[in-house]
Amino acid sequence: MQGPFLLGTIRNPVPASADSWETKHGLIRDQKYRVVNAFVDADGDSHDVGEEWIFICGMFSKFDNEIIVCIRREIDGDWKIPLIWNSQSQQKIIENFEKYVVKASVARME
Fold first, then answer.
1. CATH number at residue 89
2. Is the pLDDT of residue 106 over 90?
3. Cα separation of 38 and 61, whole Å?
4. Cβ(90)–Cβ(1) under 8 Å?
5. Rg of the Cα trace of the chain?
């Protein structure tokens, strides 16, 4: 996990497209989410069940084959959660993100 960055410094002025990763997984910008199945990101940081944050946006780096999940934690600012899209890394998480993170208002263990 990379950060913290000053609160409000991470922004993506481009709206999510109909075929973007965040749209395909039902993520809505500026909504609060909760981790319901723990996972480890590309930097080796754990995201434990119950962790909550506000989703800012998802970005894809085709050069690194990486999804960067941009989030805001009210207690300490903006962060980037890198996920590498290959079978030895976080491919399962990237392709099933809605099984790991859900809207906080409907969050429950699966």
1. 2.30.30.350
2. no
3. 24
4. no
5. 13
